[in-house]
Design brief:
Number of helices of chain B: 5
Largest interface: A-B, 28 and 33 residues
Distance between the termini of chain A: 58 Å
Strand content of chain A: 5-15%
Number of strands of chain A: 9
Distance between the termini of chain B: 16 Å
Shape of chain A: globular
Strand order of the largest sheet of chain B: 2-1-5-4-3-8-9
Structural class of chain B: alpha+beta
Oligomer: heterodimer
Largest sheet of chain A: 3 strands, antiparallel
Structural class of chain A: alpha+beta
């Protein structure tokens, strides 16, 4: 959309750009609220090892203890700028000019043109970024949802297009690793155009990092006896053999990324999607009594 | 303006079962941490660090500072459990307040105070140790990550805080 100074069309382009910006500010959400997909129950194998009792009373082993994840619902795609715009319209305390510094840092929605205007650097159908954990959680609550846990997110992310668990397939791991090697674009592309897994969940890989409810669990060493601090076993040069799986480099990166985060931080490649507990099945419809109209 | 913890307006329950709000702690500096009463490991050390700090304070500083402990395990940390912890640790509840929020609000507290935690799936919660010195307006002015034997950093912070 570049214009050249003095060119007769530049005025027209400027008007069109302005019209686009105004339309962006006034239009309702351009993309419908995300559908959700059900992820059936499964086991998530964390990277860290937990102390577990050994055969003898005095033996403590360190083992990967799979985490059983109950079935849950997950947004089919990340939350977009359009979604977030609708949210901040209804919740002014989360607008950029008003957000508390307790809950968001100075980069919060930095690329948006204004409080209620995502603008050209934040297309309506692109994932919202530069949002803090607090903001993401507030959005989720307003939508009647919540953030996914790490275990839920990683369970969903283990899937490829045809399998629930592709996480031991070196070819899949390689693809995911290559997704992460792309630099962050200044303007995010639209959601829903890239990777889509067997659950019908899109963009878990290849678009943005995503907030999780318990991102803070990534920093703790699982040894509840000690002063839980850096998960030393997972960092190079500090007994890295504590880690369970060297093959899934992308999972390492996600773990390290989560360990580096603070809840109020915002970054250009960190967005989120929502999750929800599986709803209880509806009670069976009771047949109408004979002779009555509904 | 630096953000204040008093922006968190949700209710908490203290060790006597009374509903409290963080803004009640305005007017005097306070030292805050997060513990849970079933913790066998780092929480007794946090309490020991806080007691060592209290003992090391000059009288003038001790008179104007309070201690606030937030529960990481509000479902099990009933007022009775909090009272039991205070008694076991010998905490003077005129100056020490133990508070439990809802589980959701506990996540907010932990996120604001930057306490990382992970339940182990059984009965324990592995978590980081963090001691925050807050001023009379609820702004965190000094933070100690981890437990350590020497309270002098905290003593200095309490001395300087208003």
């Amino acid at each position: 959309m570049g214009t050249s100074v003095g060119h007769p069309r530049s005025g027209l382009v400027a008007v069109l750009v302005l019209a686009g910006l105004v339309a962006g500010a006034q239009a309702p959400a351009a993309v419908p609220a995300p559908a959700m997909r059900t992820v059936p129950a499964g086991d998530y194998r964390p990277l860290y090892r937990q102390p577990v009792p050994g055969a003898n009373r005095d033996t403590i082993l360190r083992r990967v203890v799979p985490v059983r994840v109950a079935a849950f619902e997950l947004d089919a795609r990340p939350v977009t700028n359009a979604d977030f715009l609708a949210f901040v319209r209804e919740h002014p305390e989360w607008r950029r000019s008003r957000v508390s510094r307790l809950y968001a840092d100075e980069s919060y929605l930095r690329r948006w043109a204004a409080d209620l205007e995502p603008g050209p650097r934040a297309p309506l159908d692109a994932p919202v970024v530069e949002v803090s954990w607090f903001a993401a959680r507030a959005y989720a609550q307003a939508a009647g949802k919540r953030l996914p846990t790490v275990a839920e997110w990683e369970l969903a992310a283990a899937a490829d297009e045809t399998r629930r668990d592709a996480s031991r397939d070196p070819k899949f791991l390689d693809r995911v690793r290559r997704f992460y090697s792309h630099p962050t674009p200044d303007v995010q592309p639209a959601v829903g155009r890239g990777f889509r897994n067997v659950y019908g969940v899109e963009d878990l890989h290849g678009l943005v990092w995503e907030w999780t409810l318990d991102y803070g669990s990534a920093l703790v060493n699982g040894e509840s006896r000690g002063d839980a601090s850096l998960e030393k076993g997972l960092y190079c040069g500090a007994g890295a053999s504590n880690a369970s799986d060297f093959g899934d480099y992308a999972a390492f990166m996600r773990f390290a990324f989560r360990a580096s985060l603070q809840a109020r931080w915002t970054t250009a490649n960190l967005g989120f999607r929502c999750a929800r507990d599986v709803r209880a099945p509806r009670a069976a419809l009771v047949p109408a009594r004979k002779g009555t109209n509904p | 303006m630096d953000p204040s913890l008093f922006e968190m307006t949700f209710p908490l329950t203290d060790q006597d079962g009374r509903e409290r709000h963080l803004s009640e702690f305005a007017g005097e500096p306070f030292v805050a941490s997060m513990i849970y009463t079933n913790c066998k490991s780092v929480c007794p050390r946090i309490a020991a660090d806080l007691k060592a700090l209290d003992a090391a304070l000059p009288a003038a500083d001790r008179e104007r500072v309070r201690f606030v402990l937030f529960s990481l395990d509000p479902e099990r940390d009933t007022p009775e459990a909090l009272r039991g912890f205070a008694a076991a640790q010998g905490l003077d509840t005129k100056r020490w307040t133990l508070l439990a929020s809802s589980p959701d609000d506990m996540r907010t507290l932990a996120a604001v105070l930057d306490v990382r935690f992970r339940p182990d799936g059984a009965s324990e919660i592995a978590h980081t140790a963090m001691i925050a010195v807050c001023d009379s307006k609820g702004v965190v002015r000094h933070r100690q990550a981890g437990v350590q034997a020497d309270p002098s950093g905290l003593v200095a912070a309490v001395h300087d805080v208003r």
